[in-house]
Amino acid sequence: MRFLKPLLLCLFFLGLARAAHAQPMVMNTQSLSFGKFVATSGGSVTIAPAGFRTATGGVEVLNANTGNPAEFVVSDNDPLNASQAYILTLPADGTVSLTNGIASMAVSNFTSDPADTGMLTAGSQTIRVGATLSVQPGQAPGAYSGTFSIIINYQ
Amino acid sequence: MNTQLKFSAKIVAAALVASAAFVSLNASAVDGTANADATVVTALTVVENTRMNFGSFTNAAGVISMDTTGSRMNGVPTALLGGAAGGTAGQVTVNGSANATYTVSGTGGNLNAGGATNLVLSNIAFADAAAGSVGTIGAGGTQVLKVGGDLDVPAGAPAGTYTGTYTVTVNYN
Questions:
Q1: Torsion angle, CA of A103/A109/A113/A119, rounded to 10 degrees?
Q2: Which ipTM score applies to this complex?
Q3: Which among A25, A37, A67 is the nearest to B41, CB-wise?
Q4: Which residue from A133, B47, B55, B131 has the highest number of Cβ atoms inside 10 Å of its Cβ?
Q5: Which residues make Cβ contacts (< 8 Å) with residue A124, sequence separation at least 6?
Q6: Does B5 lie at the interface with A, CB-CB under 8 angstroms?
Q7: A118-145, pLDDT tens digit by residue?
Q8: From CA A131, how far away is CA A111, in angstroms rounded?
Q9: CB distance from B169 to chain A under 8 Å?
Q10: Distance between alpha carbon B119 and the CA centroid of its chain, in Å?
């Protein structure tokens, strides 16, 4: 038993060190909002990662509530990971929708800045995420909400 | 010996937990979840409740002003028949999203009695019928507006009933 104790202690601390090394934190600091609009004959509303909102079809956006991209902060306080490269995975089309009772609108074409891959700067990176909302003709008025997730993988 | 055995058992448990944490972090990525929202608002519509009516007047050249309370003022020498109360302000209902703000503007037009002479309607003005501020839909999804304007009467306009339209344009802010 005497030789087992130091060995297990080593394993224990090795495990802790490796766990800390492999763990970024992803904090959501701003929701994705498509703002207010009138549906009329339907179309789409797109929020770009930079924040610009555009509408297609019959959708008429209100200037009073312009919407905004989602914002995430990826951070890692381990100095070894200060410039860690990562891969960002955005939600696939068909997996996210906003609902209001029985009414819903699909959210697709997620885009981000930086796109796909990136590198932490001083252990941190802000990622802004936009998407396109599909609006049906005569879409029922009301407040729609939903959630989506992004995934960060260290390279 | 007994004490040492217990201690070792604890270490084994801790090592297992640490290894498990290490394995799971390596196997699954870290994710972040955000809320997303959108608000669909009711389209703005305007319905006329009461026709704007400048009443009766003589045909000397002048401008008749209908204010939003329905009171007429005349620019001499046109004479108003029936006095200040001889006309009616227009009234429209704006339907939209409760508590939303919007802009409203009016465009006048010509009033005609079938001949060549036009009475020109301009300076369309609005006031909230409930003395609130123009451009805010009420909690019930409507705002009632009184509508006034100026009517330019040319000298010697033939007697008759002149009719025409004005246009109300509303836009959400």
A1: 110
A2: 0.84
A3: A37
A4: A133
A5: A73, A74, A75, A76
A6: yes
A7: 899 999 999 999 999 999 999 999 999 9
A8: 6
A9: no
A10: 29
